[in-house]
C-alpha cells in the first residue's frame, strides 16, 4: 500500500467544499426554508476521532521504539536488565489494521472538513444574523476537527512506514528479545 499523498486529501477538501457550497446555494435558491443546522456534536466527534487516531499512533511509536532498542541491545550482545520485561514484536495484522484506520481517517477527515468548509463559506454572507454566526463558528471548529483528523492519520501512516531493508542484513532477531 502506498502512503496517502497530502495533495490528494487537500484536493478532496476543496472538491467537497465546492460541492457542499453549490448544494447549499441550490437549497437556498429553491426557498426550501432555512438551511439545516450544524450539529454541536460535529466538531466534538471529529476532535475525539483525531485524538483516538493520534493515541494509536503514539502507542505504536512507543512499541516500535522499545522493539528497536531491544533489537539493538541483542545485536550488541548485551544481556537484558533483570527488571526489564521482554519486548514482543508488533503483530503484522495489528499494524495492517492501524494502517487501514489511518487511510480511512484521512479520507473521512478531509471529506468532513470539506463539507463544513463549504457550509462555512455559504454562511459567510449571512454573518449579520446571530444564528448564522454561531453556525459559521461551529463550521470553523468542525473544519479544524477534520484537519486534526487528517493530520493524525498522516502521522499514523508515517509511524507505520517500513524502513528499507539494508543489503546483506539477513540476520534474524533471536526470539525472547
From TrEMBL:
The keyword Transmembrane applies. InterPro entries: DUF3180. It comes from the Bacteria. The keyword Membrane applies. The chain crosses the membrane at residues 7-24, 44-64, 98-124, 136-156. Keywords: Membrane, Transmembrane, Transmembrane helix. This is DUF3180 domain-containing protein. It comes from Actinocrinis puniceicyclus.
